[in-house]
Specification:
The chain has 233 residues and is α+β, with helices and mostly antiparallel strands. The protein is built from five helices and eight strands; from the N terminus they run H-E-E-H-H-H-E-E-E-H-E-E-E. The chain has a six-stranded antiparallel β-sheet. The chain has a two-stranded antiparallel sheet with strand order 1-2. A hairpin with a 2-residue loop joins strand 3 and strand 4.
Length: 233
């Protein structure tokens, strides 16, 4: 009987010792459950965050803008080809600078370059005595140069078709004036009369005509006086 009492007392002692410990563990578990629930709720958000970051589109890269280019005008004219030099080696009045030295304002190849040189050239081609220096084409043996076709001559030459030499392409060849009119080159073979004013080629109306034996240049201010000339391309 005493042994059973002793065993019962020992069991009760153990139960008394185990029960508080068990109750304490249960209490700790109950206290830990809210924290565990908080962690469990936070865990899906933490797991979803990388997935959201994974699906976010990459930030667009800024493209480097090309350097602005200045557009070329659509109607820009094509460069003009250089004007060929005439066969006598000169150039038009006011045109290309000639090669070689000039003398007396007129280049030896016959190229005046400005009004001063043209004036000097006309001074040099002036007659000292017109009556003794002038020769007609008959006296020269007749005109054997180029002949202008009759229909073209009637359309652009003769008394009714006058002009001024100063407004035409002009050079000096062999000391005499040569000018271009209607596509033809007209060259003096006579000096011009010493009784005419020095600037007659600038102020006077002149015309070309064919008289008896050849071509002559006439000044409308001095009827009947013709300077013998040749016509060529």
């Amino acid at each position: 009987m005493s042994v059973k009492l002793a065993i019962s007392a020992g069991a009760l002692f153990l139960l008394g010792a185990i029960a508080p410990a068990y109750a304490q563990r249960e209490q700790e578990k109950e206290q830990a459950k809210p924290q565990q629930h908080e962690q469990e709720r936070a865990a899906p958000q933490q797991r979803q965050q990388p997935a959201q970051q994974k699906h976010e589109p990459p930030a667009p890269q800024r493209r480097q803008q090309p350097a602005p280019q200045h557009p070329q005008p659509a109607n820009k004219p094509a460069p003009r080809p250089a004007k060929p030099q005439p066969s006598y080696g000169g150039a038009y009045h006011g045109g290309v600078q000639p090669n070689g030295p000039a003398y007396g304002g007129v280049h030896q190849s016959g190229v005046p370059q400005h009004a001063g040189q043209v004036r000097s050239g006309f001074v040099q081609s002036r007659a000292k005595s017109w009556s003794s220096e002038h020769r007609s084409w008959r006296e020269r043996g007749g005109y054997n140069g180029y002949r202008i076709p009759d229909d073209r001559f009637r359309a652009y030459f003769g008394h009714d078709h006058f002009f001024r030499i100063s407004g035409l392409p002009l050079v000096f060849v062999g000391g005499y004036p040569r000018f271009q009119y209607d596509g033809y080159w007209v060259t003096f073979v006579d000096p011009w009369p010493d009784t005419w004013p020095a600037n007659w080629y600038e102020t006077d109306d002149v015309y070309l005509d064919y008289t008896d034996d050849g071509y002559y240049l006439y000044d409308r201010n001095y009827p009947g006086i013709g300077i013998a000339v040749t016509v060529s391309f």
